[in-house]
Amino acid sequence: MKLLLTTVPGLEFIVKEEMSEAYGHLDIHFNVLTGRVFAEVKEPIARVLALRSVENIRFILEEDRTLEGAIERSLDEVRDLSKGLRTFAVHAERVTKEVGFTSLDLAREAGRILLEKLGLRVQLDAPDIVFYVEYDRGVYRFGVDITPFSTLRDRPYRKALHKSALNPIIAYAMCRLAGPARRILDPFCGSGTIVLEYLSLYPEAEGLCGDVETETALKASENAKTEGLAHIYVQDVLKPALRKGLEVDAIITNPPFGIREKAVGRLRRVYEALFMMAEELLSSKGKLVMITPRRELVQAKSLYLEREIVINEGGLASWIYVFGRG
């Protein structure tokens, strides 16, 4: 079966890695910065639902140069899938914009065809099945939306959220890039997303979670009760509250960048303090993994750049940097 997996644009390679770990060798292809990964899976898709790098899953039944053709070619499977069901809805997406119709127009036309072919009733609020249709560069794809009412990005531990909480998929990708470690630190932890994602990936690790705001640290503490135990404390990165001689194997963080919130202290000073902290605390093979849209503030001195990845979320370009010891 052909699956369309969506993710944060720029992190398609993480989805490929995670899919390969779950299923072994697969036929997987994607274009970078589209947020869309296609995979051919022969086994049941239950394991896909456990992936932490995926946002939504669509089961693609057929594709064709016309919408009618894509639906017509998949009717036998559609009838099997909808057997015993009464209502349906259509989720549509116009991936490329060179045509004169909207996603809503596409959904309406697909709904009309399905209504005629299947005899099911349209129900937008709580349908029994949600079909998926998209238009992409002259091709119509038709299938079933596997995650129509929620996204795999939602995490059970996210009960108390910081106003600029990091997308857990991005946090998860950063944790994978950091790799296994005995002890990690996020000095700008917000509601704890990065540390809690890390503990879900490497449950034996020790997580240190600091933030300058007491209220924010309390939110991280509330979330940590669900996912795992982390050491949460209040600190100003300009005046670290860590014991002398402490060593960490990775610093994974999303420092402030002045769009949704202002840093306590000027941004440049805050970034300089972050790199100074990394130089002082990282073990001999330690890594600093950080994300920011403010490239001009990234100035590592004694650390060397291992990897730089551009992502795009909500129209905002950001860069994930992986630094190692020089």
From TrEMBL:
<dbReference type="GO" id="GO:0003723">
    <property type="term" value="F:RNA binding"/>
</dbReference>
<dbReference type="InterPro" id="IPR004114">
    <property type="entry name" value="THUMP_dom"/>
</dbReference>
<dbReference type="InterPro" id="IPR029063">
    <property type="entry name" value="SAM-dependent_MTases_sf"/>
</dbReference>
<protein>
    <submittedName>
        <fullName>Methyltransferase</fullName>
    </submittedName>
</protein>
<dbReference type="InterPro" id="IPR053943">
    <property type="entry name" value="RlmKL-like_Mtase_CS"/>
</dbReference>
<keyword id="KW-0808">Transferase</keyword>
<dbReference type="GO" id="GO:0030488">
    <property type="term" value="P:tRNA methylation"/>
</dbReference>
<dbReference type="InterPro" id="IPR000241">
    <property type="entry name" value="RlmKL-like_Mtase"/>
</dbReference>
<dbReference type="GO" id="GO:0016423">
    <property type="term" value="F:tRNA (guanine) methyltransferase activity"/>
</dbReference>
<dbReference type="Pfam" id="PF01170">
    <property type="entry name" value="UPF0020"/>
</dbReference>
<dbReference type="GO" id="GO:0005737">
    <property type="term" value="C:cytoplasm"/>
</dbReference>
<keyword id="KW-0694">RNA-binding</keyword>
<keyword id="KW-0963">Cytoplasm</keyword>
<dbReference type="InterPro" id="IPR002052">
    <property type="entry name" value="DNA_methylase_N6_adenine_CS"/>
</dbReference>
<dbReference type="Pfam" id="PF02926">
    <property type="entry name" value="THUMP"/>
</dbReference>
<keyword id="KW-0489">Methyltransferase</keyword>
<keyword id="KW-0819">tRNA processing</keyword>
<feature type="domain" description="THUMP">
    <location>
        <begin position="39"/>
        <end position="146"/>
    </location>
</feature>
